[in-house]
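Now for one specimen:
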Amino acid sequence: MSLRQRCYWFFCFLSFSFMLEYSCHHPDANKTTFHHNSAVLRSSEEFTSRYKEEKLLGEGGFSKVYAGECRSTSTPVAIKHISKEDVEYVKVNCQGNVYNEILEVFLLDQAAGCLCDGSFKNPAVIGLMDVFQLETEVIIVMERLPDTVDGFDYLLEVNHIPEDKIKVIFTQIINAALLMHKNGVFHRDLKLENILVNRNKGTPEIRVIDFGCGDFVQNEPFRDFCGTLEFAPPEHIRGETYKAEATTVWQIGVMLHMTCTGVCFETSEYIKKDKEVLKNVSKECNDFLSQCLALDPNQRPTLEDLLLHPWLELTGPHEPETLKSTSWTWATIPSFPSSSTGSNPNVSSTTANDSLLEVLEYSCHHPDANKTTFHHNSAVLRSSEEFTSRYKEEKLLGEGGFSKVYAGECRSTSTPVAIKHISKEDVEYVKVNCQGNVYNEILEVFLLDQAAGCLCDGSFKNPAVIGLMDVFQLETEVIIVMERLPDTVDGFDYLLEVNHIPEDKIKVIFTQIINAALLMHKNGVFHRDLKLENILVNRNKGTPEIRVIDFGCGDFVQNEPFRDFCGTLEFAPPEHIRGETYKAEATTVWQIGVMLHMTCTGVCFETSEYIKKDKEVLKNVSKECNDFLSQCLALDPNQRPTLEDLLLHPWLELTELLLKQLNHSKEVIIMGDLNINWDVNQGRRSLKKVMDEMNMTQVVNDPTRITKSLKLT
């Protein structure tokens, strides 16, 4: 939907006795910074002049949906007609202005992450294209994808869906539901008929439709049920209240049960039966299903838990071969071109006005990520007047060789921001092919946004990366506006202020840094200049929280080694000092070691000096910390551990925490005698091998998820 259409939708005529101050579930989402979608009264003539209506696709109790076509572009659309008396409205306060919103339109657009600033983009939700509010009805125009049927018809057509394909479909459904909930939207009627499936793709792709029964996610339980009664959760059948997430998980279980059995489902009948074991699917699938369909809602896993269940195999090791046959969206390890080496023919880095022949087809590192399904962030030429009208610039925060960063404030919301100015001649661009369209992307902006997991569909969300808020491409400079967190300093100043950081707190900080770096790499981004000055630390929190900043030296992760170094030369890896090539992960691990060495010693570091010395043992930290440090700072890059290895090192105590949780688990797991000593030569501990077999490799990346995931084993 165009910006002009959004601005055109304005105030409608109904009045209400309540007002919603809306906020999505993103921690940084501003309650009032959504883009309102109210529709003015428009004419049926305008609708018929824009769209051609064709056959009836389906109808429900309150609406009818037709196939159609946009007359000007021949784009296929789905057209939903709802009688005016059945349309529900909600009042929303947006920046002091009150709008009457069509509830279904609001929920549909926000479920896709298109309204509230800071929402999570959710491409699995059907796209909203237009809205007409006529005198007797509301017409909602949505995208209509070719060769697509609803999940129920897909099941009838295919007859038997292999379990591997069921996993692919339900991974998408769960991910879509999780993002809807994070955006504050509760669909409330998830069923096969409301899931569209592309039937002619090797890997099926899904879209969620029909938000007519939807509501807002809330902490308080719901009482009145709106949706398909046959699939209502048991707690509603028992006359109790029900909660959003537990209900969504139940409905996912219902859809999976029908997909696996081919039999219609009815909650009131299911709760009378003994627990069943399906014979045509795996043990893991049965376990997944039994947890979704737990009669006690408190026993059902969360949506995040479901994504960590071994059945979906998202937390286990990925074989590179899976890259060749998949085309959907989640994130792990293909090859990447570099925009700086000059050796890759797929990349160009010149100014936006130059004629570029090279094109990068970008993909994040998940094996199922589609190479062209990212949301491009190209900035059009904008005016300095527009920038100054939006943002107030304050004191200088810092400057580097190519940029200056100022503190600032968003004028309309008083939100603190950081404003980075880069001279146009120092801005690097890359051409990216997105669904057949080629865009000139500002490389630093692209890397920053993708490192945070905000561009390529299915990327890993990485909240430890500083948030991108706005971009202005002016005639002489580019201005990048980012979030600015209160009471935060860079890691170097934090070290000077605190003087001595206890080792327990160092562990907390570096666990976050390593996890952030791992997710950046999985999202295909190589920061290349990790140093204390590029790590922001919240100094007033009991548990320090970090943010990674400054992707000006960044590049794409690639299998081929790099030759030219871009970053702080004092912290370059030894292989570069020796005139050799260097690789992304080994360099990132080295830079983590440099930061840790400076944090533990309080002394500046220089690689060229360090490699001349004998191996040192720091006396003010533990033996485990020394071992961790010596491995990060191994002079031979092949001897350095991977980022995943670092998270499993005994110093961080994450694996010990995992073992404690395993010991308290009700399920008996025969693990044998574990050698939990770090194996320098193998670069892996035997515990990691056991975890690989248990499909739990990634669980330790986020210790807060350990307990959750264990109850799924």
The chain has 22 helices and 24 strands. Residues 148-312 form a domain with the Transferase(Phosphotransferase); domain 1 fold (CATH 1.10.510.10). Confidence is low (pLDDT under 50) at residues 1-19, 27-35, 315-376, 661-713. Residues 54 and 635 are 68 Å apart (CA to CA).
